[in-house]
Amino acid sequence: MLANDVQIEKAKPEDLPAILALQKLAFRSEAELYGDFSLPPLLQTEESIRKEFENGIILKAMKGNEIVGSVRARMDEGDCFIAKLVVHPEMQGKGIGKLLMNAIENSFSDVASFRVSTGHRSLRNLRLYEKMGYQAVGEEPITANLTMVKLKKLVG
């Protein structure tokens, strides 16, 4: 399976339960990495993802009829905040995350910067974001085991 077998589309309200289930599956490895199964993406509710859907854009990566990835973003004062980039564990490392990131960036115009954050031990995520032009601009300790690295990509 290669990324060119995958189509990126805007999610619909009826996709949200499947996207939430995929998110919880994909974030399990992050929970293991940090020894914390109470990470917010693992505890998110359908009501909460519906609010994110209403206040931003959620994209899905489709392979045939199956959702194999997703990402979401929202605007805030000229900056685009990208969150919850997820790819099915069996599909990771095939370029789907990069496709989703490119698609979400292209979904917004008139943006000063794109912002994303990830855990300090999530080296695969950090490498992807850095390859795409993001630079670390700060850190935020969350727990004794988890520090979020904040990254930013200036536009223009």
UniProtKB/TrEMBL annotation:
Source species, domain of life: Bacteria
Swiss-Prot/TrEMBL keywords: Acyltransferase, Transferase
Gene Ontology molecular function, alphabetical: acyltransferase activity, transferring groups other than amino-acyl groups
Residue ranges constituting the N-acetyltransferase domain according to the UniProt record: 6-153
Listed PANTHER family: AMINOALKYLPHOSPHONATE N-ACETYLTRANSFERASE-RELATED, AMINOALKYLPHOSPHONATE N-ACETYLTRANSFERASE-RELATED-RELATED
Name of the molecule in the record: GNAT family N-acetyltransferase
